[in-house]
Amino acid sequence: MPFTADIRKEFPILEQKVYGKPLVYLDNAATTQKPRRVIECMDRIYTTVNANVHRGVHHLSQVCTEEMENARNTVKDFIGAAHSHEIIFTRGTTESINLVASSLGSMFKEGDEVIISTMEHHSNIVPWQLLRDRTGIVLRIIPLKPDCSLDIEAFARLLNNRTRLVSVTHVSNVLGVTNPIKEIIDIAHSHGVPVLVDGAQSAPHIKVDMQQLDADFFAFSGHKLYAPTGIGILYGKERWLNAMPPYHGGGEMIKTVRFEKTTYNELPYKFEAGTPDYVGAIALGSALEWIDSIGIEKIAAHERELTRYAVEQLLTIEGMRIFGKPDGAAVSFLVGDIHPADMGAILDRLGIAIRTGHHCAQPLIDHLDIPGTVRASFAAYNTKEEVDILIKGIERAAKMFA
Length: 402
Ligand code: C6P
Known about the structure:
Elements: H1 3-8, E1 17-18, E2 21-22, E3 24-25, H2 36-49, H3 59-79, E4 87-90, H4 93-103, E5 113-117, H5 126-135, E6 138-142, H6 152-158, E7 163-169, H7 181-190, E8 195-198, H8 210-213, E9 217-221, E10 232-236, H9 238-243, E11 254-257, E12 262-264, H10 278-294, H11 296-314, E13 320-322, E14 330-335, H12 340-349, E15 352-353, E16 355-357, H13 362-368, E17 373-377, H14 384-401
Parallel strand pairs: 3-15, 5-6, 5-7, 7-8, 8-9
Antiparallel strand pairs: 1-2, 4-10, 9-10, 11-12, 13-14, 14-17, 16-17
Helix pairs in contact: 2-10, 3-10, 11-14
The structure holds ligand C6P.
């Protein structure tokens, strides 16, 4: 059986019909569907080992703790981190970036600078604006070139002795474009500046290796790579995480608590206050094992081919405008002056799930001077036949608005 047919069988949700039509799920950049293995993993935890972790001396607590720590190790291997204590469980990319902005950011002073880019998701803009409001830091923005790629020369010119951090996305969630992140990291490091990589749209689709990239921080969300919602990762180099103050206070992140003084736990627990989402963490481990069982490189090649095919087919449609040069697992477009919301509504009635609007990247949409885009985004289980259905759907919509 071919690659995708085998894979599709593992995703029960894909078997359903929407408005009497087979579901064509092309909104994977928003969230992916979950394989049976992950759903069954969560069921198994609640059915057989559920107990609060890191606290109990009793059997269940120990088993559950061990499973959670095994999952941390799986994440460590998945992204090539040097140590499992560099893996912090968070609620997702958004919380991971907020953690760095709050904690590392508390060490910044008025006039210090943070560099982000024009193509950031709101979760890599607003935390820095909140920090700016609190401390008076200055935000510098990497501009785009006419082809929507990052202007790397302009980036190099933004770095100066006040720059404290560069925080950029690895892959744009709107354009599906992969940024030259290694080059960005090397340039920043040559100025002694650390880099946070928003890996929300790269970790599910590209082999990432912290040793090779040399990123100082790397953030991603479980739900975009076949794991449940509510669990995500902040990777941080040990030396940064050790130097940073805790983010949230509470149970688990402490060594001793006295009214006069509290001392903090070691990594990674210093950054994991309160009962963690251990079920989510274990299920994330299960999702990563599922990816490993197929091979991320194989998934990446399949998604790249779907994107290439989609771009080729989309360009046969009159009035088609594709934004940027997508090279990953997502493509954003507009057809003539059809509003993206109208296109989305028509495709929805055909059973096709795509995303429309600003995709939480309003500054980029403003830069493009458009009302938003229609975005199709792919995962391991999508097929060329689904791209064909999408193309037919768009053609039908285009005729309706002609
Ligand atoms: N983008 C999309 O449809 P959370 O919500 O914390 O899991 O991820 C936030 C986030 C951060 N950075 C990038 C590059 C992202 O794409 C996202 C999530 C989704 O494009 C939902 S808005």
